[in-house]
Amino acid sequence: LCSFGPAVYNAETLLGVLPLFRDPAEACRGERLAAEEHAAYFRLLGALYGWGVTPASFVNLLRVIRAGSGGAPLAVEALTAAVAADTEASTRERAQPSFFRFDGKGSGISNVFAGTPKWPFSRDLGFWGTFLFDSFLEDEVAGGVTSRTGRSLLSLFAENGDGMTVRCRGRKLCVSIVVGKEVVVATGEGDELEPGAWYTIGVVAFRPRFVGKSTITVYLNEKVYFQGNLPFVYPRSQIKSCGFGNNMSGRMGACLLTNENCAQSTVASIHAALASGDPQRFLELDVAQRALVSYHPLKVHHSMCIDLGHAVVPGGVRGEMSERT
């Protein structure tokens, strides 16, 4: 069991439930577990808790183990049955559809890069997510790119007004870039999007170090939707706003925003994890753990989205759901 990934536990919390292993009368007499027993229990409990069990099922599991502790064979049998039952329940829970719901104008998830000293994308920018659209606007003119009323999958802008949006123009995916007074809009020529269907969407922007032009590649269900030489947004100022699903009408699953270079193998693994709908598969992605922003609809607290990435950003990064999300 201890081979299943890193142990995830809180020592103080587990010390409180360790007596469930033993006779309460013995625990009341102040008996102490040997150091070797402590280490073994922590490895075991950490592995089980790292599987993603809920606190309630975790405590029930400990009680089952204690109930079967009269003999080694019974304890092993009880542990095996409890783990199997909990794994089955966890699998059923992960199979349930999970998503953020966007109900049109006023919806979205806004981020605050508190204390970020500068624009974090110097040469690479990657955006990934799963989306379902309830409806589409027939068209949004380029002049509405920076408008807060416009619909977008991703909206990212700096204090000086430079930025980019990933959105739909009609039923086509579109990327809009704003650099100074220049606005560049690129729309895909591929298949039109259909309402009510889930899509895995990715956008990779790259700025070469020495020579060559900046490129943006848009992926739709792992295939290249369009690619072009668009300016790379690299302003000398801080982030002003970063939003997901602004004013959208539809749904969004897991998503991430990174400033790492995405090789083809990474692109394939991200798409596979998102398309599977398995939270654990997404959460275990290296790029998701290192991302600047990484959200999953199962990992929220009230109206706050918990950032799942481990990128070092002063002050941390959190996402707040708007009223109509």
Provide a descriptive summary of the structure in words.
With about 325 residues, the chain is of the alpha+beta class. Helices cover about 25% and strands about 30% of the residues. The chain is built from eight helices and 16 strands. A nine-stranded antiparallel beta sheet has the order 7-6-5-4-11-2-16-15-14, with no helix packed on it. The longest helix is centred in the N-terminal third of the chain and has 24 residues, at about 70-95. It is globular. The model is unreliable at about 1-15, about 20-30 and about 140-150 (pLDDT under 50).
Inertia-based shape: globular
The chain-level structural class is alpha+beta
Describe the oligomeric state of these chains in a short phrase: single chain
> What separation lies between the terminal Cα atoms?
39 Å
Low-confidence stretches: 1-17, 19-31, 141-148
Number of helices: 8
- What is the alpha-carbon Rg in Å? 24 Å
DSSP strand count = 16
Q: For the largest beta sheet, what order do the strands appear in spatially?
A: 7-6-5-4-11-2-16-15-14
Beta-strand percentage? 25-35%
